[in-house]
Amino acid sequence: MTDLRIHDGPSHVPAPDPGEPALTRRSFLRTGAAAVGGMAALAAALSPLRELSSSDLPNLDQFLQKHYKEMTPDQMERALERIRAQVEERYRVRPHLRDLKPMDGVEFVYALNLSRCIGCRKCVHACVAENNQSRSPEIQYIRVIEMPRGTLDLEQGNHRYDHPTVPDANHFYLPVQCHQCANPPCVKVCPVEATWQESDGITVIDYDWCIGCRYCEAACPYWARRFNFTEPSLPREQLNPNMAYLSNRPRDKGVMEKCHFCLHRTREGRMPACVEICPTGARKFGNVLDPDSEVSQILRSKRVFVLKEEVGTLPRFFYYFDERYPNSLDPEAIEIARRLEREEGAQYGALPGSSGPNRDFVASAVAARWDAPFLPGASTIDGGAA
Amino acid sequence: MQGAPSRFREQSSAFIAGWTLPIGFVVVALALLMNSGPVRIPVESPAIVSESLTAIGPRREALRDPPTIGVEGREENCRACHQIFHSASAAGAKLSYHHDIVLSHGLNDRCVNCHDIDDRERLTLRDGTTIPFAETPLLCAQCHGTTYRDWQRGTHGKTLGSWITGSGAQVRLGCNECHDPHAPRYPAYEPLPGPRTLRMGEPTHDEAAHDRSTPRSPLRRWREAASGVVPGAAPPVPAHEP
User: Fold this and answer.
1) Consecutive H or E run containing A173
2) Are the Cβ atoms of A155 and B14 closer than 8 angstroms?
3) Number of structural domains, chain B?
4) Do A360 and B167 touch (CB under 8 A)?
5) What are B123's strand-pairing partners?
6) ipTM
7) What's the whole-model pTM score?
């Protein structure tokens, strides 16, 4: 105890510890070299940061951005301006970006004529060009399934068909994309409400709100949702600058995307890209609340069906086949025409001695029996050319 | 005072040793700062994507009224020749002109089934009335009544412009803007490349080895095991389908 008191005296400057080695030239050089090496390594490690642009990091605005439905117009305009700046920075293109709301009194419905689809896949690639999907890895919204004739069993379908030319005589083609269900399972499973159905029937995604859990992908019975597993790569010159917030603005890694009926076009009255490109007119799009629209006509006059009706999703995407009417080479049609000539004294040129104008009219004669009001020659022709 | 120089040396050495790191940091930071800064690249106008995917017009050029045809580099009306030359109207007659026309339209084997025999710039209906080329659908409707009905309703054929009916922006293409009237059947198309997406791309070995003509079943593995077929022992099948 006394010893301690003596050593703790005041104003005592401690002498250098004799056990600590003095700083020699050698140790200085060693320390200095280590420090310089460390510096160089640090600088090298930091150098990629120089290429970091502001668009690579979520800025404060993006981080604090509210859910689409909660944004005021001012906040939406700020968000749009931020996205415009990001797109301009990444792609060197100033996008025409806006937020399009659903139109009043409009519910979109899609119809696809399976008798006309030839499986050329133009719609698939027109969609990719329109909607700024990632080119590598490829993301495609439309899947054209080649089906054996005589079945609708999707298990027998093949979407990797690779014939030199289409259509193949033994198959028909069933393009599948988002069906914009009225009872969408993908919306129900989303834990953060990043996807919802709008009043015009389009199920949309807020790409800034999606957390990438992929529940919706699992819930969709039509395999219509796609996930950005990697940073989407899109060549700068292929960017489509016509964008809307909820449709084809560039997505980030880790978010879902899917067909949205090209809402940046359709909410302005235009046709979706897949409809415009279709070389056979198999794709039909319109407003089902308008009784004169093509889709309303199809729903009234054609026998339409939906995929996987039994799962109760109520799709807004209808498939139909054209009725198969006989042509002039159809033996059955010729037989019917002959019978009509024998029994009713009609003149269709089907019987050997008949003075009908041409056997080509056999088919129309037969069709006339079935659809008299619509056949020209009757008084119902109203101009024709639209 | 012999200890003073060595003490000074010790102090300066300690100073250097203690400040090397911070000074180094400052130097590196300055270097990085001077080298960094926003790289401005001028904004370019966007290029157009593949032309085949933006061609959304009619599939073919239909004849307009009055119809013209290229004759030795000039565009001539039909009458320019046909009021001079009498053309054969009989079935199977040998054509002295229009060799490029391939007639493959059902049992139609005469030009005058559709073209008016007196005025080649008009078309003829079955009852003898003539119509201009713009009203071609009326002619087609004589045989293809049901298709014409569908076309009138909009359930057959292609519509461009807008989905809004009655806006005037909607354009419904006529029969001969998609079909060649002389050979109306659609030609075969070369399909665009198939999916190479992450989950829709090349089939896995397991999928390729499985015959696609039979339905896939979750019980397949179980059945194979039961029948003694070991999935791994199956002979390798090329990944591409023939």
Assistant:
1) strand A171-176
2) no
3) 1
4) no
5) B115, B131
6) 0.70
7) 0.71
